[in-house]
Amino acid sequence: MNIQKNGINLLLVAEAGLLIIVLVLGLISGATGVITNPGGDSDNNIVDNGGNNDWNNSEDEQEPGDSQKPGDSQKPGGDEGDNQNPNMWHVYAVPEEYTETRVTFSDAVEAKLATMTVQQKVAQLFVISPEALTGYNTVTAFGNASKQAYDRYPVGGLVYSPKNFQNKAQVQVLLQGTKDYGAQKYGIPAFTVIEEEGGANHSPLATTLGMNRVSSASELGNQGVTAVEQAAKVRGEYVANCGFNLLLSTIADVSPALDTAYRLRTFGTNGELVASLVAADIKAIEGMKVNSALKYFPGKANASANANGILYCDMSIEDLSKDILASYAAGIEAGTSVVTIGNVIVPAITDDENVPCVLSGRTIGLLRESMGFDGIIMTESFSDSAFINIYGSDSACVEAIKAGVDMIYMPANFEEAYNAVLEAVNNGNISADRLNNAVGRILTEKGI
Questions:
Q1: 0.85 exceeded by the pTM?
Q2: 246: which residues sit within 8 A by CB, 6+ positions away?
Q3: How far apart are CA 222 and CA 228, in angstroms?
């Protein structure tokens, strides 16, 4: 009996010890904390009817990345939720190198790829203005000149600005004619593209046509998730009603402070709040049957211009992952169609102080392999003078496609860029698999 009692006592002591170990391990694993996912439910001040009209939509604003100032930290708006954002705890791995293999697409996409000429495939890689396509100073209708130019260069998309807008009915006819012509003649509708972020200076469509434009991202960032969703639906609805099918509007960057023109185009300074707002914005836009885009991976708000005028960010991959990459990941998980890469140098990603992310295969590998994005990767504008002075317009287009980018946005000279990429494909500098992967993703997002 004594032996049995002693054995029982020993067993109880052992069980108690194990329980203490489990509790201690639980406390250690939970020491990373729990970040709630704050989201507001304010629906006030969504509409912005004031401000000056500024159509400088260049995405290459070279602004210094000031350190965060006391009092600049943005507080979550609205009621707090209890949804955790696991992206905040993940350090994203950058592959040493990225080698793309041939992707297999749907039967319909593969069948379309098999019937396309090399020239048609190369043309699909470009998003340009109607003026760059036709050579006209102003295009307000898809007439014979546009059709002839499109026959020569059936580009992937056309991006429009206030010079193309007269009234809503005219815009609808212009865009419908553009999409119909590509669909009927080639079986591939064009992307009809608009940069419409919201706010007084970045709402070209709403302001030109007298619509109620929504507030800027930084203004909405103080109002919470519901306000962002409602604003995205308003913007998505009038964009879709006019005939646009690709909206470049969501900057997924996290700013150290809201003190410059670019930073005021972001949702704010609180990483988790920005991630939740980016996700809400993307879901609402996609819910309006409009393709959405995240700009400008991997972020520019913390960068400053180097001696050559190129944005440079010296953040570590750990610091980038904690807030900024987590915000882009939230947009990717929300279902964005496009990720736009910025003309910014981030050595923690590129492993080279002279190579911008948009020309780096490591950046593509980060998006594809580590972050799981399988949609279209697009450059930001390749018309910026500082960028093309260093990297060249034509050569940059070739290097971007080689690295794994799928679409070139606004090259400085479209015909020269097109011919340079075509030559690179014909001489094997850009492989057939690389070309087919890029075009296959474009056709997939177009619903082929």
A1: no
A2: 157, 191, 192, 193, 194, 290, 291, 293, 337, 338
A3: 10
